[in-house]
Amino acid sequence: MSDQAHLAALPSPAEARHRIGGAVLVLPTPADLDGVPFQHLPAIITQLASLQSAAAMRLHRATAIPEAARLLTAAETADILHVAIDWVEKRSRTLPFRVSLADGTVRYDPVGLRRWLAARTGAVR
Known about the structure:
It contains 5 helices and 4 strands; from the N terminus they run αββαααββα. The protein has helices at 3-8, 41-63, 74-81, 85-91, 110-121; strands spanning 16-20, 23-27, 98-100, 106-108.
């Protein structure tokens, strides 16, 4: 009996069905695992590890903070702070969320900006 045929034959009503490509993989419940032939366990473990890695990557991508993917310009920072661009540029060296790029360009970290605002005002705008 093939791995897929054996797994599909498990009688448990609590089994989890997953469509992978054109095949349906039926995962045994922990209680049913004792009934799975020993030689089929490596295939189950491999498939579960693959699913776990793919699920972890999907969760990571879904929970990444989009605003952290890009740094702000002085104009964008000034807009968030409701100040003039000159105010940001004059104080740039003292702002803890300032990021100096290799070519002398200055940008501002949006996450650091929000933390700085929260510490100064007690609220994030």
